[in-house]
Structures
1.
Amino acid sequence: MTMSRGWRKAALAVHLTVSASWIGAVLAYLVLGIAAVTSEQNSTIRGAWIAMELIGRFAIVPLALVSLTTGVVMAVGTKWGLFRYYWVLISFVLTTFATVIVVLHMPDVSGIADQARVSSRSGMRDLGGDLFHAGGGLTVLVAVLVLNVVKPPGLTRYGWRRQQQTTDR
Amino acid sequence: MNESEPPGLPRWVKISGAAVALLLLGMIAVMVISGGDHGPGRHGAEGAIRPAMTAG
């Protein structure tokens, strides 16, 4: 099932836009996290966590879900396939992993943002900045981006079998 | 390369896989040594949020 040239271009445009936006949203989340950790002002820490929750809920989670979906559509609808090449398969696994973590982690972020709304001065310093998730997520997304740009060679066993079947016909 | 046999893992997959495995082992070691509470079980759990003092 291969997409027509027009559909392929449209799907690619959506996928690139959404995936780049996801990286941008995580970068913004990381900057706010650093502000929350380094700031001495309660209002800055409180504002950073409220903004982090908003970015997470209304940008990172939807962008992750749409990026994963359009990525699968792009793979299935083109010659690359989802399981034929290692770079596609690894990109898919990493994107799925990042999306699952993002969705499962959001209740924690909301909880900390709720605490930031009511915390006293001493409690505010304990909230941290969620730098582990933001930094790790950014690393994974950049790795996927590099894989998608470089497209390193390597057929999987499944891809090799499919190629043999096509050649035999 | 014999085309009647399926290909093995590409070199770049082996190298990056080994690098990621080392990184993960290092992170696990740091978490164990520092007594950190982070892990997959933490996500979505009610007790995940650190206690903080609340005003009024």
Note: Helices of chain B lie at 11-34.
2.
Amino acid sequence: VREVQLSSSTGRVGPEPVPVTDGAIATAAAVIGLPVAASYLPGVRANLALLAGHADILLAPTGGSAC
Amino acid sequence: VLTAVEIAAAVRNGRTTAVAIVERCLAGIHADGNRLVAVTRILVDRARGEARAIDAAIAAGVDPGPLAGVPYGVKDLFDVAGLATTAGSAVFDDAPPAASDAEAIRRLRGAGAVLVATLNMDEFAYGFATINARHGTTRNPHDLTRLAGGSSGGSAAAVAGGLMPFTLGSDTNGSVRVPASLTGIFGIRPTHGALPMAGVFPLAESLDDIGPFARSAADLQLIWEALSGTTVAAGTSPIRVARLGGRFRDNADPEQLAAIDRIAPGSPIVELPEIRRARSAGYLITAAEAGMVHRAALATHAMRFDPATRDRLIAGALLPRGLYDMAQAFRADFARKAAALADYDVVLAPAAPCIAPPIADPWITIDGERRMARRDLGIHTQPISMTGLPSLAVPLRRPGRLPLGLQLIGRAGGEPALLRFAAMLEAQGVIGVSPPTDLDVADEERMPA
């Protein structure tokens, strides 16, 4: 059983949230040493939003609203 | 177009030579002029050398193997000795050449097959559409204005278009089964880990498998036996069949459902629990593992990636580790629950959810919403990848119409039963390859999928 914390993006109980804001993306990228150019941010943010939707489905016992 | 079975028989009994077969194949590829955008490199010298070796073996009284002189191609992520393994990306244009062939190619060479080409794919196999910034978008041989599917789209189009009798692809979430379905040919994702991955560039290693494409069940069986080192025995016991229900019967073409119900009328409808969560878990695992593979390259030369792929990979690299672990834990539990399918030899489900979408409008409808084809064509294949079970994509026989495919899902190690069942359906005329023709496509099929 994994220790969990509240996800700020969904309010559901789950692991660390998927970074979806520019600040959270910058922090996550710095942690792994991956520079993300400003021009890449819109595309990266959109993909992270999609992944956050899949995280919502995974973490919700009955499945979320995204496909 | 000769089948692999026909070519091997003709070469082995001396009715033709491997050199003649390979020259005809090479001429066909050149004549096509990359109309399909399927071929990325033509291996003329290597192919001629391998063909001469086959003919020399026959002349010396040595059996060159069950695939004697059969030309084939491989997705651009298999190591080919002397060539850079590009995985469909400009990022690896300058990579050092592979020192040796991938293990799968080594096995096929040992069986007498002749490698003639490398084939187009989504960059790093990350997509269901074979929209490739480096080489272009692979075209569907049945309608050049439509997608061939992906990520092994070049491998599928080359077989469906008659350029070669079989090819190899890889399947993480459906990258063999989706293009097989959209181009109307056979393609198998094996039991997870059943075929060798040595020398294959990864997308998401914990989910990746390789698999062949072919134009008939008999060809696929011959290739399967060469790759797996096994023999598919003629079965005598009845094949127990079920239909996969729930979400697999939503978002399917009505003709797929009608075909499933015709094939197995009155058979049990079984359900896998939590399909949507399974697909999401697969999506997250793939993103995280793919991001990990490319993290170093993204840090040093992100500019060389296709921007669309780059942004997906960066996003994957930024996923929290805890979320990845939870997705893998869910996957393990899901696979345990899917073991209930082992009560049946074959479980029927749709493959791709629709006919091939137009290249100019690469969207599909899922749950009443428009979704990007390159991301969502695997809605019915991705959950099966999470089970680790084998799945054989087969084409419904519908001459003159755009292809639709089904999945025949088996128990672990159950590929022989899938191949036997496919051969039976093919003999009955229910499934089978229809050659691309000047299609009289129905009006509704010209509408965006």
Note: DSSP finds 15 helices and 17 strands in chain B.
